[in-house]
Amino acid sequence: MLDRATDISAKDDTTRRVRFRGAGFVPASSRFGGWIALAIVIAIWQAAGSTGLVNPLFLPAPSAIVRAIYQLAMSGALWQHLSASLLRIGVGWLLGTAAGIAVGFAIGLSRLARSVGITFISALFPIPKIALLPLLILWLGIGEEPKIATIALGVFFSTAISVYSGVDAVPRNLIRMAQSFNVPFATIVRKVVWPGALPAILAGFRITASVALLLVVSAEMIGAQYGIGAFVLQAGNLMQTDQLLAGVVILSVFGLVVGKVINLLETRLLHWR
Amino acid sequence: MDLIANHISHHFGDLAVLDDISFTVGAGEVVAIVGPSGCGKSTLLSILGGLLQPTSGAAELRSAPPADSLNPLTFVFQDFALLPWATVEENVEFPLLHARLSAAQRRALVEDALRRTGLTDFRQTYPKQLSGGMRQRVGISRALSVKPAILLMDEPLSALDSQTRELLMEDFVRLLADGGMGAAYVTHNLEEAARLADRIVVLSRRPGRIREVVTVPMTRAERGEGAAREKLLALQNQIWSLIRNEAIDAEREVQHA
Q1: Above 60 in pLDDT, residue A36?
Q2: Within an 8 Å CB–CB cutoff, is residue B94 touching chain A?
Q3: Residues A251-265: tens digit of each pLDDT
Q4: B98 and A183 in contact by Cβ < 8 A?
């Protein structure tokens, strides 16, 4: 007699293949899909502009925007505006990040700092920081300081929140493990809490980079001679939409570059995930 | 060095978890702590290891630990508690980083611990690349690196499959064979308790009180022999009969909660 467990040849009318039901819900982005879609959109946009379907005053063709960027670069104006914005973003982001990390760790590790800090952060975080710019101008003058301070404030709150959330998310069992080996507090912070909170801190960097970009443009639109925000506003006032969109493209490229840098940081620092 | 539970009681708010627990883990002795779910076994181990302050009573140490012990009371955790961003070697080295040791001494301790747990070839591996059994070996290796006098093991095998559990139990028997190291071993698995312990402290359901302390009438070496199997089974049945009704009540309590 055949062993039923190994006999696979005996088939009848009721024999049928088990239907596959496990497809989907595993979205994987194709490597070139996004670029191809972007190229198609730009091509349609260009065609619409070249054939006169769209008024170039309202939406200039991509070629006009590229031309505008080229002219800006050649005239030296691009570097003048870009360097002013980069300086404000860089200094503001660094100041806000340093303060946010320090306060975030204090809130994450100290009961006193938590009870005081969370109250203040909850009260101040929802305020649109750009609304404080006039006050900051009053306090700090009309130079670079109020713009940098606005960016630093915006970055500070988001960083502090992501850092203390990250510290809170460090598995307590790892801290207890370290304590069970009598590991000193400072070593626990350095070797357990910091690396444990790093994923949240880097995720916070992604958000604060966008916040800094938003605030620098807003601040420059309110009161600056140079900077991408000032340039975009000026182009808009003069109805130079190709120049205006050139500024927008530069901002977009800046955002992409920052995103790539953070991706690189994550790959290097969080390779263990 | 002996570890003493001296009239330990503990409450979490209004909830009484442990009630007047007293026993001793002698030098080189393995004491298993068993009882129904929620009877406070892990809480008791945390108190014994100084990770939790008891409401009353105290965990005490008697006589000096071995001179070379860097952390006389050392935990082996149920969930391994490995640093995911550190390699096997770095995890084992972690508790030694703050000790006053030269780099060569530290390296020697790490090497010895890795060798004793069969992890030498996995030193550069990250925890996520290891199976559950191997991760627990890293946890044991880390514990051995500080040369403990008493291991505090909180259900170290409960997260593992039965085959891995069997293999690690053999490792424990081997590591505890020379009597140089004692252990307080919390488990809900009576087979583990009977195989490894010299004495078994049986706790009642919450609040955990000592119902009985059972002495295992065989050496650990004898327990590996076929003839011992029936005796061990009888011992497990004896302990099970002590806690069965309370385990059922505890289970019902969990269901109702």
Answers
A1: yes
A2: yes
A3: 999 999 999 999 999
A4: yes
Q: Per residue in A233-254, is it b (16+ CB within 10 Å) or e — as a string?
A: bbbeeeebbbbbbbbeebbeeb
Q: H or E element: which one contains B84?
A: none
Q: Cβ atoms within 10 A of the Cβ of A173, count?
A: 14
Q: Is the pTM of this model over 0.90?
A: no
| Inter-chain CB proximity B94 and A182 less than 8 Å | no
Q: Which residues contact B135 (CB under 8 A, 6 or more apart)?
A: B80, B82, B127
Nearest by Cα to A146 from A69, A241, A245, A216: A216
- Say whether pLDDT at A143 is over 90: no
The ipTM of this complex is 0.89
> What distance in Å separates residue B211's CA from the closest CA in chain A?
29
Which stretches of chain A sit within 8 Å of chain B by CB?
A: 171, 173-174, 176-184, 187, 191-192, 195-196, 270, 272-273
Report how far apart, in Å, the C-alpha atoms of A265 and of each of A91, A101, A182, A194, A246 are: 20, 17, 32, 15, 29
Residue A182 is nearest to which of B71, B85, B126, comparing CB atoms? B71
Question: In whole angstroms, what is the distance from residue A185 CA to residue A191 CA?
Answer: 10
Task: Supply A156's token pair.
Answer: 């500070």
Q: How far is A262 from chain B (nearest CA, A)?
A: 19
Contacts A–B by Cβ distance under 8 A: 50
What's residue B49's pLDDT?
Answer: 94
Beta-bridge partners for B59: B5
**Binary contact (A181, B71; C-beta < 8 A):** yes
Listed by number, the residues of chain B in 121-140 with a beta carbon closer than 8 Å to a beta carbon of chain A are 126, 128
**DSSP codes joined into one string, B133-188:** HHHHHHHHHHHHHT--SEEEEESTTTTS-HHHHHHHHHHHHHHHTTSS-EEEEE-S
**Are A92 and A213 contacting, i.e. CB atoms less than 8 angstroms apart?**
no
Choose among B50, B75, B97: nearest Cβ to A187: B97
- Per-residue pLDDT of B130-142, as tens digits, reads 998 899 999 999 9
Look at the block and give the residue holding tokens 């054939």.
Answer: A51
Question: How confident is the model over A30-53, as a mean pLDDT?
Answer: 91
A183: chain B residues, CB-CB within 8 Å: 94-95, 97-98
Decide: A234 and A162 in contact? Cβ < 8 Å: no
CA distances from B116 to B129, B140, B149, B171 (A): 20, 10, 17, 9
